[in-house]
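Entry for the shared binder. Reason: the reviewer on the internal report wants the predicted structure included alongside the sequence.
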Amino acid sequence: MSWTKEEFRTYVLLFVAHCNYIETKEESEYIISTINEDLYNKIHTEIVMDADEEVKLLKVREYLEDNSYSENDKKLLLEDIKKVIFADGTVDVLEKKAYAFLKKILN
């Protein structure tokens, strides 16, 4: 993947927000609060076009294989993932599954 580090982070956060097929206003607002809105819109279009979950996961894996991502970066990303998941005050089974899978591939 030829993403920047910030594009990758945004893709992962949007992946989590979309994992249960419902991106809530609170999830979107949290993500936008951590990046600029142009980047959000760019990556949001990409994640919507990548309709298949397997494609999304493959892109995440490929980025991690091709780029150096420090342990601290991984820790911070997992914290951000949790914040997206909890942004709307509820956590469903698909969000738990996505978190567990991302935690596994980030560690």
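Summary line for the report: The mean pLDDT is 93.
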